[in-house]
Amino acid sequence: MLKKLLALIATLCAAAAFAAVDVNTATEAELDGIKGIGPGLSGRILDERRSAPFKDWSDFIGRVGGVGNKSAVNFSKEGLTVNGKKYSAAAAAKAEAKSKSNAHPKKHDGAADERKAKAPATPASATATPVTAAQAPAAAPAASASKN
């Protein structure tokens, strides 16, 4: 009898540990309890949720920066749900199609500007006007006259 009671308690504890956490109703502490979600990400999730609840996984991935298909799979394995649904391959395909067909430009992160800034500049000699033979002798006497 005691063994059955202990087994029941252990089973209930295990079930509680893997209880689903819905992204639309979870507190910050519950979100932080999901492996891979820290204070920064849970804050972004809550900020986006204030504007409107998440409709589905593709909406969640599209609106929360730093969440992609791979992290969504991991969050779902840890017990995160969107409207009670786990992440699925169908949701991944839908999110992928939505991101490719999205007409809105992605947020600018400045990385392209940094790459442009680090690109080698065109040397001045390549853009300067070449000196003609007629101009060269005129420049030489002026330089020697200033030395005297």
Can you put this structure into words, describing what you see?
The protein has 148 residues and is mainly α. The chain has a domain at 20-99: DNA polymerase, domain 1 (Orthogonal Bundle). The chain is 59% helix and 3% strand. The chain is built from nine helices and two strands, in the order H-E-H-H-H-H-E-H-H-H-H. It has helices spanning 2-17, 28-32, 39-51, 57-63, 69-77, 89-101, 111-118, 124-127, 135-147, and strands at 21-22, 80-81. A two-stranded parallel ribbon has the order 1-2. Helix 4 (57-63) crosses helix 6. The chain is globular. The termini are far apart. Mean pLDDT is 74; it is low at 12-17.
SSE blueprint and pairings:
Layout: H1 2-17, E1 21-22, H2 28-32, H3 39-51, H4 57-63, H5 69-77, E2 80-81, H6 89-101, H7 111-118, H8 124-127, H9 135-147
Parallel strand pairs: 1-2
What descriptors fit this protein?
148 residues; DNA polymerase, domain 1; 9 helices; two-stranded parallel sheet; 3% strand; mainly alpha; globular
Shape: globular
What's the tally of helices? 9
Query: For the terminal residues, how far apart are their CA atoms?
Result: 115 Å
Regarding CATH, which class of the domain at 20-99?
Answer: Mainly Alpha
What structural class results from the helix and strand content? Answer: mainly alpha
Mean of residue pLDDT?
Answer: 74
User: What percent strand?
Assistant: under 5%
Taking pLDDT < 50 over at least 5 consecutive residues as the criterion, the unreliable ranges are: 12-17
Helical content class:
55-70%
| Major sheet size, sense and barrel closure | 2 strands, parallel
CATH architecture of the domain at 20-99: Orthogonal Bundle
Number of strands: 2
Rounded Rg:
31 Å
Strands side by side in the biggest sheet:
1-2
What is the string of helix and strand elements?
Answer: HEHHHHEHHHH
CATH fold assignment of the domain at 20-99: DNA polymerase, domain 1
